[in-house]
Amino acid sequence: MSFGGIDKYSHIINNFMFSLNYGLLLVFGIALYIMIIDQNVADYFLLVFKTMKLNMVRLLWMIRFHPNNFITTWIQNRKYDRIAKEMMEKIKP
Known about the structure:
About 85% of the residues lie in helices and about 0% in strands. The chain has helices at about 10-35, 40-65, 70-90. The chain has two domains: about 5-35; about 40-93, no CATH class.
């Protein structure tokens, strides 16, 4: 039973995934070998991953606090309106 011709190309996809898996294993194996041999390479990879994490956090902060982001602007305006109402209630006798 064939679903839209998927079975016709399954051997190509399987061969590609087989090659991709072994290719990635080879690349990561070489990287691991170099990291074991030279500590500076391990430190470099650690710094690269820390930089990637830092850039992702920075991007999230930039998205969150961008002035044109209507969701966070709406949330901040609601908070400011609530604080203003509380202050007006304190001022009124």
